[in-house]
């Protein structure tokens, strides 16, 4: 049968290995090169820029009025 000390050491070891694997995964994911991204982003950027240039902000399209106060009797 496994003792409490052995179970504790096994849990610490497996938890440490899991954390190292998570850190390694994120390191590799952040530093991975995306070959398809530059070609895809070049075609999307002009459309986004055109949409931003033609749209009007909400503050320009609707007039702003102050809410009525209870002092007008």
UniProtKB/TrEMBL annotation:
SUPFAM superfamilies: Oligosaccharyltransferase subunit ost4p. Residues 35-73 are annotated as: Disordered. It is a single-pass type III membrane protein. GO terms for cellular component: oligosaccharyltransferase complex. It holds the Pfam family Ost4. InterPro entries: Oligosaccaryltransferase, OST4, Ost4p_sf. Its main location: endoplasmic reticulum. Signal peptide: none annotated. Keywords: Endoplasmic reticulum, Membrane, Signal-anchor, Transmembrane, Transmembrane helix. The chain crosses the membrane at residues 7-28. It is found in: Endoplasmic reticulum membrane. Residues 46-73 have a biased composition (Low complexity). GO terms for biological process: protein N-linked glycosylation via asparagine. Belongs to the OST4 family. PANTHER family: DOLICHYL-DIPHOSPHOOLIGOSACCHARIDE--PROTEIN GLYCOSYLTRANSFERASE SUBUNIT 4. This is Dolichyl-diphosphooligosaccharide--protein glycosyltransferase subunit 4. It comes from Penicillium cataractarum.
């Amino acid at each position: 049968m496994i003792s409490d000390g052995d179970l504790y050491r096994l849990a610490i070891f497996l938890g440490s290995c899991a954390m190292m694997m998570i850190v390694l995964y994120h390191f590799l994911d952040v530093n991975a090169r995306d070959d398809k991204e530059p070609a895809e982003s070049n075609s999307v950027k002009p459309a986004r820029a055109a949409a931003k240039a033609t749209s009007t902000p909400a503050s320009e399209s609707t007039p702003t009025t102050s809410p009525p106060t209870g002092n007008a009797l």
